[in-house]
Amino acid sequence: MQFYNFMTVVAAHTSKPVIYEELANAAGISAPTAKKWLSILVSSHIIALIQPYYNNALKRVVKMPLLHFLDTGLAAWLLKWGTPEALEKGALSGAIFESYVFSEIYKSYLNTGKEPPVYYYRDKDQKEIDLLIYQNGVLSPVEIKKAASPGKNAVKNFHVLDPVRMANTADAANMADNAKTADSAKTFGGLDALKAEIGNGSVVCLAADLLPIDEKNWYVPVWLI
Q1: Which structural domain range is residue 212 located in?
Q2: Rounded distance, CA 90 to CA 86, Å?
Q3: What is d(CA 184, CA 20) in angstroms, rounded to the nearest whole number?
Q4: Ranges 91-95, 115-119, 143-147, 179-183: which has the least confidence
Q5: What is the dihedral sign for C-alpha 23, 29, 31, 35?
Q6: Which helix (H) or strand (E) holds 198?
Q7: Which helix H or strand E contains 9, and what residues bound it?
Q8: What is the count of structural domains for the chain?
């Protein structure tokens, strides 16, 4: 029964950063037990723990994993939302929607035998990006909004990745200068430059159609994922 109660607590914390003491207190268990039981849910593919994205260009990142319940139907059942209408009116409907979108993207990689290249971003100034997809050297930001018309403010936090873009530009310039030197091959090979180009951004939402927000970002209807 204790483990069942713990699962209910975890469902109520979907799309939130993991704080073991908080989960433990809510479930009436110890923090080490909460950590052990959470690892069981991860290995059972009931939840996923998503690591934060950070590099040397991003200095204020909060380095806690983010929790997502992969079976949002099970999460709703545990939280006693027995109908779509009850879920729609529930206090966690936005969090459940976010976890649903995340799980569909996450499982699309697992189903093709790939490790999901997914991260999230949160810093000490409370700026967040719900999902970052990093593949082939490109970092693509994704916001998830349970709204048909989220507005341009939905991408306002994408600018936190500007230091990565600027660092890449500076590294590229340095490599060009170093290429002129006699030991350019050694210098070029030792750089951690150009690890992440910033790609197009997306806002996954309840929009009816795929629509541009600006030259770099798009509204993506949830049915497309």
Answers
A1: 2-224
A2: 6
A3: 48
A4: 179-183
A5: negative
A6: strand 197-198
A7: helix 2-12
A8: 1
